[in-house]
Amino acid sequence: MKLGCHVGMSGKDMFLGSVKEAIGYGCDTFMVYTGAPQNTRRKPVEELNVEAGQRLMREAGITEFVVHAPYIINLANTVNPDTFELAVDFLKLELRRAAAMGSRTLVLHPGAHVGAGEDAGIAQIVRGLNEVFAAVPAGEEKCFVALETMAGKGSELGRSFEELARIYDGVWENNRLRICMDTCHMSDAGYPVRDDFDAVLTGFQRYFPLKEIACIHLNDSVNAQGAGKDRHANLGFGTIGFDALCAVTRRPEFAETPIILETPYVPRPGSKTRDLPPYKHELAMLREGSFREDLLARIQAEAE
Ligand code: FE
Ligand code: FE
Ligand code: ZN
Q: Of the ligands numbered here, which is closest to the C-alpha atom of 106?
């Protein structure tokens, strides 16, 4: 198993700090945003302290990490040309940056059609990805763009495997695409993640071989299957439940696949601000394979 979570990247240490944080939680792998996820301000890669981070990764036996593109970039936008252009330009830089950092996987939210309709949105995503791949040659150390399965909130695209397959169909260099499966999003989109994950994978294989899955986001969901909401819950504290999520990590098909938690931070007792990372405890729970009802209390007690 390659288990990990998303970690920060900031301060003086930057990427080295990300690796330290991941090691502190007991990660085998991890995911970073190259800056704030809600904006596109980025430091040049020379200032990210990549070499020191990679050295520490090697020492810790962490062989792989994932980069997540900021979620405000929207390749599907046909309504505002500036938004689309910003997304394309940013993605070119981000793909180079992720490759230079040594990542093989850049996770991307396909985009939202913002009222123009699915067909127009998908055509625009295809156009954008073709521009990005044409401008950034695949190069030696390959970094793939992994399209994330989405919950279908608002006008989000990529909420079905069929929609993701339509993107693949239009992209010339679609051998540079991969899929990131988010368990919360798939459940919210209507897939039976809790009750029948075999059926989810069978449905996936109608469009893609399983080897296209480059990354899994392992999250529980606050909302019911099909709710189309996208609110992550801590493992075992949502509608998918611990057993179903733990079973995903035990699948032989995913033995080498980075499995990343993006579950919410936990508030201190008597506080509303969620500032306690749950990952050390959630990862331990996954490795043990048994749910701990008192997870939140244990995280809070440790912070006292
Ligand atoms: Fe995401
Ligand atoms: Fe996700
Ligand atoms: Zn989400």
A: 1
* Residues near ion ligand 1 (Cβ under 5 Å): 148
Query: Ligand 2 mean position to 217 CA, how many Å?
Result: 5
- Ligand whose nearest atom lies closest to the CA of 72: 1
pLDDT tens profile 220-270: 999 999 999 999 999 999 999 999 999 999 999 999 999 999 999 999 988
Angle between helices 279-288 and 15-25 (to 10 degrees): 50
Identify the three-state secondary structure at position 232: strand
Other beta carbons less than 10 A from residue 78's beta carbon: 18
Question: Ligand 1 centroid vs 243 CA: distance in angstroms?
Answer: 23
Burial class (CB in 10 A: 0-12, 13-18, 19+), 79: middle
Q: Compute the distance from residue 36 Cα to the ligand 2 centre, in Å.
A: 15
Ligand 2 centroid – CA 263 distance (Å): 9
Paired tokens of 239: 């509608």
Q: Which ligand is nearest to the CA of 147?
A: 1
Over residues 38-88, the pLDDT tens digits come to 888 999 999 999 999 999 999 999 999 999 999 889 999 999 999 999 999
DSSP-assigned letter for residue 48: S
Distance CA 262, CA 4 (A): 9
- The owner of tokens 């893609």 is 208
Q: How far is the CA of 213 from the centre of ligand 3 (A)?
A: 17
- Say if CB 22 and CB 30 are below 8 A apart: yes
CA distance 69 to 38: 10
Pair type for strands 105-108 and 144-148: parallel
Q: In this structure, are residues 68 and 107 in contact, taking their beta carbons and an 8 Å threshold?
A: yes
Regarding pTM above 0.90, the answer is: yes
